[in-house]
Amino acid sequence: MKFDMGATVLTTLMSKSRTSSTDLGTLIRLLLNAAQPLEGKFNGQGKVAFDSFKVRADGITKELNASLAAILGGQSGMEKAFSSGDQEQGENARSQMSSANFDAARFRGR
Description:
By secondary structure, the chain is mainly α. The protein has helices spanning about 10-35, 45-100.
């Protein structure tokens, strides 16, 4: 099995995740603003549910952003691990090449 990943894949993924986090918070605020005209139009359990949504909207936004921040932290850790692994692999290859006897492998006609 071959696993090949470009050097910028995780950086691009982190950038898009950050954008998604911002977009998600904005969408929740837009939903709350769009629901604003409905305030005072509900009675009974509908009013309770609507008021609960309004009160919890900021908390929901914070929880979602915290979850996305944790995802970004994981992506950042993966990026560091892949980068250091790539660098270590290159250093190991250079080290092995410097100790190899390439002259012994030459085929000479006699």
